[in-house]
Amino acid sequence: MAAPTVLRVGCRRAAGLCGALSRRIHHQPQRAPAAKGLLAAQSERGLFQEVFPAQRAEEGLPALLEPGQPPQTVYCGFDATADSLHVGHLLTVMGLLHFQRAGHDVIALVGGATARLGDPSGRTKEREPLSEELAREHALGLREGLRRLFDNHRQLFWPAAGGARWGEVMLQDNVWWLGREPVVGFLCEVGGRLRMGTLLSRQSCQARLRSAEGMSLAEFLYPALQAYDFLHLHRHHSCRIQLGGADQMGNIMSGYELVTKVTGEDVFGITVPLITSTTGDKLGKSAGNAVWLNRDKTSPFELYQFFVRQPDSTVERYLKLFTFLPLPEIEHMMEMHAREPEKRGPQKRLAAEVTKLVHGKEGLESAKRCTKALYYSNVEALEAMSDQELQELFREAPFAELLLEPGMSVLDLCHKANAIPDGPSGYRKITDGGVSVNYIQVTNPETVLVIGQHILKNGVSLLKIGKKNFYIIKWLQL
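-> structure tokens emitted (478 positions)
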């Protein structure tokens, strides 16, 4: 029998799949706000890229996902190689959210066990070993981050559709079962059903075997462990669909092979595109260009600015991928942008939608305050900022706590903050216009500090020396 093949959702053959699903849904009562059908709608947005296996997906997925049928369970895995998700993970999370919005149950699986082996997919060398303790800490961080995304979605983005079923969300960690699985038992059940030739033929495996470093047994067995995750979730949660990035298709195939051989039931895989930088590199920790979703690694302001800076060539695609905005609204937005490109309306809307999903309303407000304070020299925004926001915005800036003494001058402030050298050169720095306090240039070194002007209502002064050197002063006992 011929091996199962991959179906690209965007190709002509996929049109039959999506069209069939749309036609079936047209005559069925809706369970969710996706009248066009989940696969058709998300292929149109560009979110669902490939479906596996092609023939069975074309025949079985429309019936499986059509409204009126029992909800399905879909899962996606996130290895705990760091304690935070990053933008590269966000599309698979969006895929889960779209399934949830369509009334299906979703499982976000943290790979606390598989993270210790390291997925060889797309890698040129083996990951650094991860201790059990560190993997546990990372897994906790990922579960908290995933929970925050699902909570923000429910609170801020949930469609107001009365009577529609809301899909359930489960957060799992594969260390809960892989950590207890005896090696011999695992090899007997899994090892006997996965073929060496198939695993060796995978592109990721071939590339590593040809490399100077080679491939460890631990890495080689990674697809088997991920396949077992699918089997476990199928057995215990009736999970029939695995979602993953485009680089996960080989692992998804292994999961399909194991589950179908053990249970005889049809299961499916769906991939989403990989997000790359402007140079074409995959965004992520390994590439060293990760934009993190945890605030202590990437602030709301930095996340907001990442999306605001997207070029016109990518912003429409990103609006379709990273937001829940209807396609007609995106189309109208791009038409307006063509007339007034200097306003960067689509970029700002994209940044706002993503920041709100990741950090909530307060995170979005924080990002906007920081943007006004830094790029528009807005004193009101600066005055409303918290200490945390100031330190996030000016990460490299020295932070000093000072007591306001009677008659303290701008020159005294600069010296106490170690912002200018002692003597005539420091004095001239001020007189030559190289010093500002709260974006107001000061040229008289003897100017006495005034509360409400040089010291804001939040007890902060932002000292700027030259064009780029900032100092944050927190005043005590005002």
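The chain has 20 helices and twelve strands.
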